[in-house]
Request: fold
Amino acid sequence: MAMTEQRVSYTLDSTLETVDSAEEKATRIAAELGFADDEVMQISMAVREGAVNAVLHGNGYDAGKKVTLAFERTAEDLVIIIRDQGKGMDLSKIPNPLAPENLLKTSGRGIFLMRSFMDVVEIRPSQTGTELKLIKHVHGPTAGGKEASQ
Amino acid sequence: MSMKVGTRQVDGVAIVDCSGRITLGEGSVVLRDTVRDLLSKGQKKILLNLADVNYIDSSGIGELVSAFTTTKNQGGELKLLKLTKKVNDLLQITKLYTVFDVKDDEAGAVKSFK
Reply:
């Protein structure tokens, strides 16, 4: 783990435990920053979905590949970046899970859920991996972390 | 907390009481194995009680869809009982609320099976 005052980052294995760990970290950090309970749930779920994509679809559970997870608190946002070391993805092939023909598919909802729960979702695929950026705006006077409540 | 299930029979309906998390990995596998086991025994009226399921991810949603279609393809019916707010919200967001038959009352749910 590397940590600065406003930023914390982790390098994680490509395992299911990483998915749970990423979710737990997101829950803790979002709560510490003062987000409301429903926002904490949204953030943790988006991070879980991002971690699943990185571990499963990106790195393919390859023990030789790592997932990096970073949380950064800016003046107005919580910015979360998840990177894998996979072969990238074709964004044009992501189906719309709400389309009638896709409703009964058993997968393909992760990115949709991330977009539902976060204010900004950016996906940058490349041949050496995919970078996912999730942003949640800070709302209200209580969000802003412990500093604001002290 | 991982996923736990208990199965009981009420008037010919298999009620699967689920608790914990239905997520990628163990939770999804437990649900999948339970439904497949019931179907293999000829039990085709299945009611998933999700009252104590406090978390579900996209893999868990996919597992619910898989359980629903697998049961339907074998001539059975699978319904959902007592969704928590989180699970209800997710099924609304994903439009799956229109696919699943969701019940709030167990006795009424049991009677609703053909």
In short: The first helix of chain B runs from residue 26 to 40. Residues 90 and 96 of chain B are 8 Å apart (CA to CA).
